[in-house]
Amino acid sequence: MKKTIVAALTVATVAGSLVTATPSAKAHDGVGAGIAAGLIGGAIVGGAIASSRPAYGGPVYVAEPPPPAPCYWRRERYWDGYGWVSRPVRVCY
Asked: Which domain of life is it from (predicted)?
């Protein structure tokens, strides 16, 4: 449904920009109308392709990885040979 709405909005945007950007048409000059029809047709076909289902036949479900183990950071003191030093240590359980 979301893709269909986006495709329709894209077509409406392109059509709206063509209305304001094209010069006034003359009876003997059909080039502008041909270009406009080609752009609108391309937008419609592109929207239909973009909103179509994938070639393999259906949605793909990917399993989410399990959440990481609950961990926390804690300050730990240790003797480095010269004195007591404090460092952060990650503790997981």
From this structure: Bacteria
